[in-house]
Amino acid sequence: MTAPRIYRAALLVIGDEILSGRTHDRNIAQVASWLQVQGIRLTEVRVVADDMDAIVEAVNALRTRYDYLFTTGGIGPTHDDISVDAVAAALSVPVIVHPQARAILEHYYKDKDGGLTDARLRMARTPEGADLIENPMSGAPGIRHGNVFMMAGVPSITAQMLASLTGKLEGGLPVLSETVGGWIKESEVADLLRQTEKAHESCQIGSYPFFREGRTGANFVVRSTDRAELEACMAALCAGLDGLGLEYTPGGI
Amino acid sequence: MTAPRIYRAALLVIGDEILSGRTHDRNIAQVASWLQVQGIRLTEVRVVADDMDAIVEAVNALRTRYDYLFTTGGIGPTHDDISVDAVAAALSVPVIVHPQARAILEHYYKDKDGGLTDARLRMARTPEGADLIENPMSGAPGIRHGNVFMMAGVPSITAQMLASLTGKLEGGLPVLSETVGGWIKESEVADLLRQTEKAHESCQIGSYPFFREGRTGANFVVRSTDRAELEACMAALCAGLDGLGLEYTPGGI
């Protein structure tokens, strides 16, 4: 049996507001969860400022290395929205006003104050050769060029663009996961985790400690693309926790 | 007058749980906000899996490019905690058991179930030549080696390690910022933002749109290291918003 192909993606988050700490990023987790369902593994994330050189360098590093590159941020109407120019530069293509994007924006703004102003028309600019990603929420579309997918910075708009792409990208087997957790110090179960993972080659076990209400706990996540092996590994882990006399909760705490 | 030196940092977030979407990262915003106060600019963030090659490559790319590199995650007691080994490999130094870290852990675990087990002793391992970063919360220290600072993945522990480092790193002038916001479409003010920024060379203006309760709004953030120029730029921006008949709230909405 040939090993199934693994599809990998990177995410480039573009925006000063994340790097200043002003805005808490929500797109990493959103894109990560969505990719899991598509059978695509998010393998690397980078966050860079609204800076032409930084964006160009990251786009070229990531689009050549992974099957897919997603970007969020910098495709709005204001002066600090330079992602289209930067991606076009990275791809060595000119920026054009995309006729279909222009039509969408003309329709969207036709009854709105000021209509399709120059600033709004900026949102119809794409690297030449791009297709659009539908955005039912606020008109301005996302942009696809080859394996590069440009999406909004506002998480609710990004969600709509991801919904438009659902099921349309080639992926592999989705990674399945199961979790148990408890008020367990991970140092108590380190040997158990290591041995259990070793005995189940096609599974990975992650250990995620936390402190809550002044107490120490951890969740243990088993991941595999094979349902039967995942369940066998989780059963072995639970038997091991029983053997150590530790209480745990399926699904995690 | 010589331009003041700008100190720049990168953050490397290490952990499968962020890339799977299971855990929402909170360290990026936390480290970013802390660095601002230290007068250090967070310039790039990368997120990689608990994978030796990926960590080594990112550590070497980032530590050579920026004044400081911070890492979070992968310094606990379990088999998937490989950050110490990876950073040591990146620095081409061996991993040792740090005598002072060992003493801290012996003290911390002396009255606890099982005492200092082999698994717990893993948390005393450091790249050779490292200093420790104090962690009053859970004993196991962070690690400093040259310009690389290794911290925990659990945000509340990272917070304690950052507190231990406060005021100890050389930085430049902190970036100051002021915000106004309103139920304003950013496309209505794109020209105003561009012109205002152009007229105030030492300031940057960021525009951060959002959708809430079915309405469109935006916050506008002016940043500068110079208090007087920041205030002049903000005054000009507010005068411009007044001129357009737009209502806004100081501090943002």
Topology, pairings included?
The structure is a homodimer of 253-residue chains.
Chain A: E1 7-14, H1 16-19, H2 27-38, E2 40-48, H3 52-65, E3 68-72, H4 83-91, E4 95-97, H5 99-109, H6 118-121, E5 125-127, E6 131-133, E7 142-145, E8 148-151, H7 155-165, E9 176-182, H8 186-199, E10 204-212, E11 215-224, H9 227-243, E12 249-250
Parallel strand pairs in A: 1-2, 1-3, 3-8
Antiparallel strand pairs in A: 4-5, 6-7, 7-8, 9-11, 9-12, 10-11
Helix pairs in contact in A: 2-7, 3-4, 8-9
User: What helical percentage do the residues of chain A reach?
Assistant: 25-40%
The CATH architecture category of the largest domain in chain A equals 3-Layer(aba) Sandwich
Q: What is the total domain count of chain A?
A: 2
CATH C-level label of the largest domain in chain A: Alpha Beta
- Content-based structural category of chain A: alpha/beta
InterPro entries (chains A, B): CinA, FLAD1_M, MoaB/Mog-like_dom_sf, MoaB/Mog_dom
Domain MoaB/Mog (chains A, B): 10-173
Protein name (chains A, B): Competence/damage-inducible protein A
